[in-house]
TrEMBL record:
Gene3D superfamilies: HPT domain (1.20.120.160). Residues 21-122 form the HPt domain. This is Hpt domain-containing protein. SUPFAM superfamilies: Histidine-containing phosphotransfer domain, HPT domain (SSF47226). Pfam families: Hpt. It comes from the Bacteria.
Amino acid sequence: MTTAPVLDTDALGRLGEQLGDTDMLCEFIRRYEALLDQRVERLQRALSAQDHEDWMDAVLSLRTSSAMAGAHALSTLAARLQDDFAHCPLSPVHWPGRDCLAEIMGALRQLAAETARQLRLFLQQVGVATGQKT
């Protein structure tokens, strides 16, 4: 598991400034959180099918969307996994063993759940600070 902070609140603040609206920031975070499990499941499917191309596409999607949403630890883990799998020979791809794959997915799921929890807390704090319901 990574030691990076789960959320980068500075990145969330910058995103809020770019969007120019707290409601838009909250909606972006809600959409990211709603799609997070689907992104992790796509990684699981790619691993199960040993589909290197889909894995690389899915891990890039998780990495970039997480970075945009301030999910620093998840983005960092996805970047590390992207680098690790990018160095696998393509013909044939040498996939980690079953135990290692289970460990990778367990770490991803655990971190995704913690990220979602902390994003919900962030949304609550934003709502309290602005006097809005989130």
